[in-house]
Amino acid sequence: MISISTTRLQTFILSLIISFQAKAQIVDSLLSISSDEVLVTATRNLTVADRLPLNIDVIGQREIIESQPISPTEALQYVPGVTRQSDGGLATTPIIRGLSRERAPILIDGNPFVGGRIRSYSLVDPFQIEQIEVIKGPASAFWGSDAVSGLVNIVTRKAENGFGKAFKLGASIYGGYHTVNDMYRGRVEVEGRGNGFDFLIGGGLRNAGNTNTPAGEIENSQFESNNVDFNIGYSWAANHRLELSGKYFQNQNTGFPGGLGAPGPPRVNRLFNPDQQRAVNLSYEGTNISDKVESIGAKVFFKRQDLEINQLTNIFFPMTSNVNRAITVQLDVDVPFMGGKFFTTLRQNEKAKLTLGIDYLREHRIGTHRDLNIQIFNPMGAMVNEINRPFTQIQPDSYSSSIGLFAIEEIEISDQLNILLAARVDNVSTRIEDGPFDIAAIETIYNEDNTSDSDFALSGNIGLKYSVSDAFSLKANVANSFRGTDLFSKYHFTAVGAGFLVPNPELDPERGFFYELSGEYKTSAISLEANFYQNHLSNLFVATDLTFADSPSIQFRNIGEATITGLEWNARANIGTLSYVFLSGALINGNNNITDNPLPAIPATQTWLGVHYRDANNKFFVQPELLIVGEQNDPAPNEIESPGYAIFNIKAGLNLHSLGSDFPHAKIIASITNLTDKEYRSHVSRGAPGNQNVFLEAGRSVNLSFVTRFGAAVR
């Protein structure tokens, strides 16, 4: 168990009393300023977020554009309890309440995104996004496996519904530049609506060199990224819509400076070249079908990941800089993926509605293919031997399929009390084929009893929101979660140093139990919010040292039990119509209950403080802000302590169309991040092992971007 120190708790209470913070749960576009009813799909149907007892943050398109993020992860870093974890360059992922990657999944328009979490976020261009929904806390009862600490749903842009409207065309142009990595990016969209039809077709690119820090460049952090997408809809009535959409993402020449031991020694140069994903989605949704049926929806989607990893590992002679072995490997990892969903929401009465649904997912992980070249040198630098192994499959194909049934009840007991009940049943099946095995010793692990498995899970959620007054409300939420055994953790194997990453076909699902208490005070002048939670986890997949084939090796095993405790604060004081002062922050502690050691990659205490000034007519805005991160002096056993730091940023924007009718609908944004060119590193920036192989975060950057809209795109 973890206890929060008295000193930290007193500091938090004092900060909350004397400070104010900007809340991120306002969805707005380039035209609007705010909306009292923020709509989200967290409960599998469109719902007003403020009515739910869940802890949900929503980042709107205007906020995303004005923060000028390189990837969606940077747009999430203002949410209390969310911290950016970096592998360098474009490879970043959010840590949600102390957990990341496979325990905080990402959805795109409600569909799971194939591939590792670090690459999922990097593939999405922020200019494609309409809004981002963040559920903080377990969401297994709503979405199934993996949502142990939270879930992120990225909603991409689509045109205005064309039912009952005359046909109209429009376009949007986006552009931007960042000095810290010489990154330029752009996107073009064409959209139209009318006569029942709507469509949006877009394409964009992001290209960057190495990231600069006050101590020099982060080598191998460059990237090239491009994307194309379309969304076509048809509404034959105001309450029916059929949609066909598709997306293509590709990163190439994308460095991975924090992965697999880089940057040294041995010196690893790893590239994703290319990393691409293709997806197509067909869906239908109807609303207000009858007095009893509020909505009905169905979708089917297909995705495919194609990843090629190029890696050069240089192993040096002891105590020298001379190369002993140069190992060049090309790995090909392909994953076809498909799924389908159906749901309906029933009105039981004016105060209650029930959502029922089923979803199905199937993943085929094609066994890794490899091309290997090893060159061996003598101390004088002359090559004395060369080994070539042709491109061939080195691992068996593996498969995963899951089916889930869910029921979600929303009840308004009174004007003061809302209740949310959710229950879900999941079955996750996994299977691996009987060959090939490049490592003969690995093949002996398998037998006819462990090449396939089936895991059953029951998830539930109970949430209550009680409005003590018009301004003050309380929320309580209790949930359990699970993480099914994924194909990588269960079946993947490879050579690691002198030993192996050993598969574990006996791996069982992770389990979690969670509770949260929240309070919110909100008036036209001020809003204050505090959240306290604990997440108790068991059966964690933990990388454990073992001896395999007479070599020191690693295997994922179910030996972990942990408790994560957190406190989040969130406040805002309005200054006039559109301006405000803000402060937000989070304190997270994590404890391994087996060893009584801290958990790895637990963020240090983090606080955002700033002022947002916006002209009363929304002509311009200015936002100076300060990020304060405390020292992490209680690291996990394989980590090192991290000093605290403070980073100052300033942002500004101008709405050109508000200056006069002669200007197009356009916005220009400028910002300077890390204004003082502070040399610092984040405790959760990934190295290997732990955070001991450290690179610095980005230095000062001057950033410029613009958005211009014409015709139907202005809405």
Tell me about this structure.
The chain is mainly beta. It has a single domain, classed as TonB-dependent receptor, beta-barrel domain (Maltoporin, Chain A). The protein contains seven helices and 40 strands. It has a 22-stranded antiparallel barrel. A five-stranded mixed β-sheet has the order 3-9-10-7-8. Strands 4-5-6 form a three-stranded antiparallel β-sheet. β5 (92-96) and β6 (99-100) form a beta hairpin. The radius of gyration is 25 Å and the shape is globular.
CATH superfamily: TonB-dependent receptor, beta-barrel domain
On the 0 to 100 scale, the average pLDDT is: 87
- Low-confidence stretches are 1-36, 688-692
Query: CATH topology, anyone?
Result: Maltoporin, Chain A
Return the CATH architecture. Answer: Beta Barrel
Number of strands: 40
Q: Note the total helix count.
A: 7
Describe the sheet with the most strands. 22 strands, antiparallel, barrel
State the separation between the terminal residues, measured CA to CA. Answer: 51 Å
Structural class computed from helices and strand pairing: mainly beta
The first-level CATH class is given as Mainly Beta
Shape: globular
When the domains are counted, the total is 1
